[in-house]
Write a structure and sequence with these properties.
Helix content is 52%, strand content 8%. By secondary structure, it is an alpha+beta fold. A five-stranded mixed sheet has the order 3-4-10-7-5. A three-stranded antiparallel sheet has the order 6-12-11. A hairpin with a 2-residue loop joins strand 8 (322-324) and strand 9. Helix 11 (190-201) packs across helix 12 (207-230). It is globular, with a radius of gyration of 22 Å. This is Cytochrome P450. InterPro entries: Cyt_P450, Cyt_P450_B, Cyt_P450_CS, Cyt_P450_sf.
């Protein structure tokens, strides 16, 4: 009877999802109970209190997800590392998730975040050398130029006496320009990629739309890769082609480039805007960042931990029955690791629910952990340090042009962010 019930549930799930996709997408907010959406909810910059309660009382708990799916929320720091660091017991293969929700697993977008060893190991070895500090140092002058250009644009816009939207004029263009320059992607396509990058993380605006955004960007990048094959440029795509040739095929290279573009764009953009908001709410922190390079470094590390804009890591699937935090996760079950929850666990330090600009750097998991830790972590740090310090030094009297209570934050998105951040600049 149990197997029959499981087959009926699976059939019903696939039928429902197929119909939802034909109608233009699946709005999971209408399907999932509020408790299942809790890991993606926030009150302003802070995760909702229920997440802290879950971490304290049940750091590994089952989420109330329909369709007969077993989904576990891991919110404790030690438990999170136990999952993220165990690639043998937990799979990252995105095709598994697509099969679970009735979609074609062959449409797996690839890239580092969605594959397992040995494919992941081989691809990461190709990409990692391009993200060493020695290689990244060549981007430093370009990053500073890009930041300076955006500050000039803000100054011109402010001359009209109107507030400037820090998201549109600063947070979005900087990582978009940097990543396009890194990859060798034409910057004139930035508007399209900003849309596609945001859409893929906003899963609850429609699961079909998110997967569609991934497919669109992959198709574009395939064209870029094929063009680079003919005449490799100085960007990351061209460098990989020159050094590895046919050892990596076009689809794999497009998947790597797509992961770098979207992973380095939306996450950094959210950090730039939300980190600026943290400074604007705290004049003393604003002053420290403006006056002291070491303070900038501390601020960036604490902001990464406190904000944890990537709220939940890519889903993992248990390859076998395994115990985590005293709870048995069954083979085939999905595991959602709450990075925003883990980064406020008491094991990292005291009073982690508050922001402390002078806190010594912690071993946070804002960039993930284990084999799938973000390969672009150091590039993100370079951008954040350069952008924050330049912003507050150019505009030392910058203030919010809106009531903080009126700011609109992105809802139910894997990458948290603020929609607009109007400021007055002098």
């Amino acid at each position: 009877m149990g197997k029959l019930r499981s087959r009926i549930t699976s059939w019903a799930t696939r039928l429902y999802l197929a119909r939802a996709q034909r109608k233009g997408g699946l709005d999971l907010q209408k399907v999932l109970p509020e408790a299942a959406l809790m890991p993606l909810r926030r009150n302003g910059l802070d995760p909702v209190g229920e997440l802290a309660e879950a971490r304290a009382t049940e750091p590994v708990r089952k989420l109330p997800v329909p369709f007969g799916l077993n989904v576990w929320l891991v919110s404790g720091y030690d438990e999170a590392k136990a999952v993220l660091g165990n690639g043998k017991a937990f799979s990252n293969d995105f095709g598994t998730l697509m099969a679970e929700i009735g979609m074609d697993p062959d449409d797996n977008p690839g890239g580092l975040g969605f594959v397992d060893p040995p494919v992941h190991t081989r691809l990461r070895k190709l990409l990692t050398p391009e993200f060493t500090m020695r290689r990244l140092s060549r981007l430093q002058p370009g990053i500073e130029r890009i930041v300076g250009d955006r500050l000039d644009a803000m100054e011109k816009k402010a001359a009209a006496g109107e507030p400037v939207d820090l998201v549109e004029e600063f947070a979005l263009p900087i990582p978009s320009l940097v990543i396009c320059e890194l990859l060798g992607v034409p910057y004139e396509d930035r508007d399209e990629f900003q849309h596609l990058a945001v859409a893929r993380f906003d899963l609850f605006a429609g699961a079909g739309a998110a997967v569609g955004a991934i497919s669109e960007s992959l198709e574009y990048l395939l064209k870029v890769v094929r063009k680079e094959r003919e005449d490799p440029g100085d960007g990351l795509i061209g460098m990989i082609i020159r050094e590895h040739g046919d050892d990596i095929d076009d689809r794999e290279l497009a998947g790597l480039a797509d992961g770098v573009l979207t992973g380095g764009f939306e996450t950094t953009a959210s950090m730039l805007s939300l980190g600026a908001l943290v400074m604007l709410r705290d004049p003393e922190t604003f002053r420290r960042v403006r006056e002291d390079d070491e303070a900038v470094r501390l601020f960036v590390e604490e902001a990464l931990r406190y904000l944890s804009v990537v709220q939940v890591a890519f889903p993992r699937f248990a390859r076998e029955d395994i115990e985590v935090g005293g709870v048995t996760i069954g083979k085939g079950d999905m595991v959602a690791v709450s990075l925003s929850g883990a980064d406020r666990d008491d094991v990292l330090g005291a009073d982690l629910e508050t922001f402390d600009a002078e806190r010594s750097p912690t071993q946070h998991v804002a960039f993930g952990y284990g084999a799938h830790r973000c390969v672009g972590a150091e590039l993100a740090r370079l951008e954040l340090r350069a952008a924050y310090s330049a912003l507050v030094r150019r505009f030392p009297n910058m203030t919010l042009a809106a009531d903080p209570a009126d700011l609109e934050f992105r809802q139910t998105s894997i990458v948290y962010g603020v929609e607009k951040l109007p400021v007055h600049v002098d």
